[in-house]
Amino acid sequence: VQLQASGGGLVHAGGSLRLSCAASGRALSNYDMGWFRQAPGMAREFVAVIKGGSSATRYADAVKGRFTISRSYAKSTISLEMNSLRPEDTAVYYCAARRRSVVDLTDISTYNDWGQGTQVTVSS
Fold it and tell me: How does strand 9-12 pair with strand 118-123?
C-alpha cells in the first residue's frame, strides 16, 4: 500500500495539529495502520495504531489522552488528532501499514509500508 502523509507544521506548546495519511492500492480493512515518530538523534518509536477490520487502537503512554487515531474507509485515510502538544512531541511523524496480523501492533519492525514523513515542531 502506498502512503502519503500530510498536516505537519509548527505550533506552540498546548496547541493542536491534525495529521492525515492517504492510502492507495489496497483495502484498508486488510491492514493494521499506525503513526510512528522519530526525533533528532533518536530511534523511531510507536505513537498510535489502529487494527485493520476493527476499531481497536493502541497508544504510546506518552501520548495517551492527548492523541487520537482514526480511520476512514470511504476516504482511504487515517488521521492523528494531536492536542495539548508538548515540545517533546517534536519529531518527524510517519504513517505506516502492515498486512493485518496477530503480532503485537506496536512492533515497528513488522510494518512494511511507510509514508514519507511530516515534520511536527512544538515550540515552548
Answer: parallel
Of the candidates 124, 121, 123, the residue with the CA atom closest to the CA atom of residue 37: 121
Give yes or no for a contact between 94 and 38, defined as CB atoms under 8 angstroms apart. Answer: yes
What does the DSSP 8-state code read for residue 90? -
Q: Tens of pLDDT along 23-41?
A: 987 778 899 999 999 999 9
Three-state secondary structure string covering 40-88? CCCCCEEEEEECCCCCCEEECCCCCCCEEEEEECCCCEEEEEECCCCHH
C-alpha cell at 71: 480511520
Q: What is the pLDDT of residues 42-66, one digit of tens each?
A: 999 999 999 998 889 999 999 999 9
